[in-house]
Amino acid sequence: MRGTPEAARVYILCVAVCAALSALPAAVPGADTPWGTLGLLAALCVACDLPGRHRLLGGSVPIGAGSFFPLLLAAAFLLPPSEAALVAVPGALAGRVEQPPVAARRIWRAAQLALTVAAASWAYGLLGGPAALGGAGGAVPNLPYALVPACAAALVFSLVWAALEGGILATAERVAVRHAWRGPAAGAVGPHLVHALAGLMMAVLWRSTYGPVSALVVLLPMYISCWVFAQYHRRHAAHRATIRALVQAVDIKDGYTRGHSERVGRASELIARELGMEESRMEALRFAGILHDVGKLGVPTRVLRKDGPLTPEERRVIELHPEYGHEIVRGIGFLDEARAAILHHHERLDGSGYPYGLAGEQIPEFARVVAVADAFDAMTSTRSYRRGRPVPAAVEELERCAGSQFDPRMVRALARAVDRHGWSAAANTVTSEEAPAGLPQQKRTAQGTQDTGTAGRPGQPR
């Protein structure tokens, strides 16, 4: 456990001791422990972890005992608390750990799951779950009533798991106490209720005349669905990482708009919600807003950071950034409609924009949304060379230019969204290397053409 903070060591030790005490009755000599059932369930937990450890079977996506909760809840329904606690231990100790300290993480995971499963089993037994479950001796399961203790056990499982997870975040990750439990608790109850239903089906089949083998009818498809779900989340995380890397590259190159991309993505999503777009399109639109200026990576840094007026040639170079951006993201399939927004977000409704001079409905819907979000954030953000406009003044300027530069429908949607949710104007801090403090506004034509006269001004390169 070297490298683990002292508070985390003490916390892990306390949880491990409590877990050992909860499992102790099952190990006492003379205890009537069903080692066959316990051993089979524990073996299944270890088996569920094997694909996560094997590279050829998707080793980068572990979905073993630590995350395959239906099997653990089935153990809570089939066994008393002390015995159910032992089921989770072998899989947790054998599970794959990708980050150090490996020993501390394995001990913590085993102790956390042992306590969580024991608590769920205790709640299940307290509400008469074992009697409602029936048995191989001929007792018919009381399925309507059996749902009550099963759901209660899932709730206890979720609360104990979230409480223990919050404790380790507070001690090991030094997350503020008021935030440590909020994250784990927020998204745990719903999934665990679904896991409980699958676990209950497994337990009913396990206790039936067909025996433990029949439980695989539930285990196998549930495990495959969890694997597919994990693959989806991993792919989604890879998408976000790709976008984050591109945005960070733009922010490093063009310090004057640092944070601008994220805010444009947020404003674009607000507009999309007001327009009633589907969730999948909203996400693509947020990506479009975040990546709208990625083409700046193709513009020379000396042009982006120039203090004085742009020459006609430099202006033409700046105006190529939508096409550069489109080329950069052309091969990123998941962006879908976002690619068109990146290419056309500087087109104007009256046809005087660039790069192709599209007009009206020729401009893709995503591009019309991003154009409004881009101009709004540019006007409301405070930069080193000028203060941002108040939000009402920025909305008024957008409304003034609706119909000529901006789509009136998008402007109205932004106005409603800002009125409903508010907007926090952002300050953009520029380092001394990028711009000397107090530089007059008129010196900033290279960086401030869109910022200082966003709507209704000719020749805006950005």
Automatic annotation (TrEMBL):
Transmembrane segments: 68-95, 107-125, 145-164, 185-206, 212-230
Top-rank EC class of the record's enzyme: hydrolase
Alphabetical keyword list: Hydrolase, Membrane, Signal, Transmembrane, Transmembrane helix
InterPro entries: Cyclic_di-GMP/3'3'-cGAMP_PDE, HD/PDEase_dom, HD_domain, HD_GYP_dom, HDIG_dom
GO MF assignments: hydrolase activity
Recorded superkingdom: Bacteria
Regions of compositional bias (Low complexity) in chain numbering: 445-455
Pfam families: HD_5
HD-GYP domain mapped to chain residues: 235-430
Region called Disordered, residue ranges: 429-462
Domain HD: 257-379
Stored PROSITE patterns: HD, HD_GYP
Gene3D superfamilies: Hypothetical protein af1432
E.C. numbers: 3.1.4.-
Signal peptide per UniProt: 1-26
Entry-linked PANTHER family: CYCLIC DI-GMP PHOSPHODIESTERASE TM_0186-RELATED, LIPOPROTEIN
Protein name: HD-GYP domain-containing protein
The species this protein was found in: Streptomyces argenteolus
